[in-house]
């Protein structure tokens, strides 16, 4: 059995999750502190990929990164790199489709943060950066981790945008999702079912890990409240 689709899917999901994690935390923190009108506009723009069909996201990415588009041509001339129909092109697709999950979950965690804790730390002479990393982030860790897990799971199972920007080349751009479709399309039901079961198993492990993290976080808060 060729395990390349699984290796490629996990590689793409891990890279995109790291990007989405830091981007989501940064933008969620900025949006929470923004004026109401700006916050409303940014919230719509940043959440839009969540409601767009993945094929629409893929089409827009092709318009932006295609080899005959300005950005695609510029990168090709400067770096001799293609931005479409290569394995790493899926990172662009998975970042776009999984970002809203990270952003909205993290924004909700930041909105429920008790600002008096930050104010108290500031009055003790700590910098805003120190307060953010040592007070705000630990207090919101459960929501942030949940967003990261959801973003990873979404990236791992992404199909529509990935298929449009990467295509399907066995051993090069194939992912679990595109492999399932290609095997089904060619009548290989047994092969498609095998990869479906692999995907189900990974998704179940990811969700169990998220539940375990939430359970541990809840017990830690309980011990903190009793202390």
Salient structural properties:
MetI-like fold, 11 helices, transmembrane helix, globular, single chain
Descriptive account of the structure:
The chain has 227 residues and is mostly helical. The chain has one domain (3-222): MetI-like (MetI-like fold). It contains eleven helices and no strands. The radius of gyration is 20 Å and the shape is globular. The termini are far apart.
How are the SSEs ordered, and which strands pair?
Blueprint (H helix, E strand, L loop, with lengths): L3 H30 L2 H16 L2 H12 L4 H10 L9 H23 L3 H9 L4 H12 L1 H16 L3 H7 L9 H10 L3 H38 L1
Summarize this structure briefly.
This protein is mainly α and 227 residues long. The protein is 81% helix and 0% strand. The protein has a single domain (3-222), classed as MetI-like (MetI-like fold, Orthogonal Bundle), CATH 1.10.3720.
What is the overall shape? globular
**Strand count, sense and closure of the main sheet?**
none
Output the CATH class name: Mainly Alpha
CATH topology: MetI-like fold
Overall domain count: 1
CATH architecture assignment = Orthogonal Bundle
Helix content: over 70%
Low-confidence stretches: none
Spatial separation of the terminal alpha carbons: 53 Å
- How much strand content do the residues show? under 5%
> Order of helices and strands, N to C?
HHHHHHHHHHH
Tally the helices.
11
Structural class: mainly alpha
Mean model confidence by pLDDT: 89
Radius of gyration: 20 Å
């Amino acid at each position: 059995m060729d395990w390349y689709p699984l290796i490629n899917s996990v590689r793409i999901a891990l890279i995109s999750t790291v990007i989405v994690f830091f981007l989501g935390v940064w933008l969620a923190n900025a949006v929470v502190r923004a004026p109401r009108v700006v916050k409303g506009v940014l919230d719509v723009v940043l959440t839009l990929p969540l409601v767009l069909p993945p094929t629409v996201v893929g089409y827009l990415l092709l318009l932006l990164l295609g080899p005959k588009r300005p950005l695609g041509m510029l990168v090709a001339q400067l770096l001799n790199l293609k931005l479409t129909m290569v394995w790493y092109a899926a990172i662009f697709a998975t970042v776009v489709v999984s970002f809203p999950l990270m952003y909205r979950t993290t924004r909700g965690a930041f909105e429920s943060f008790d600002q008096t804790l930050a104010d108290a730390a500031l009055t003790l002479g700590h910098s805003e950066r120190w307060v953010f990393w040592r007070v705000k982030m630990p207090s919101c860790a459960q929501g942030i981790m949940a967003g990261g897990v959801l973003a990873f799971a979404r990236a791992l199972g992404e199909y529509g945008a990935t298929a449009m920007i990467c295509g399907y080349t066995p051993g090069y751009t194939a992912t679990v999702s595109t492999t399932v479709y290609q095997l089904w399309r060619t009548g290989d039901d047994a092969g498609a079912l095998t990869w479906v079961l692999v995907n189900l198993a990974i998704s179940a492990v990811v969700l169990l890990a998220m539940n375990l993290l939430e359970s541990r976080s809840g017990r830690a808060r309980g011990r903190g409240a009793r202390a």
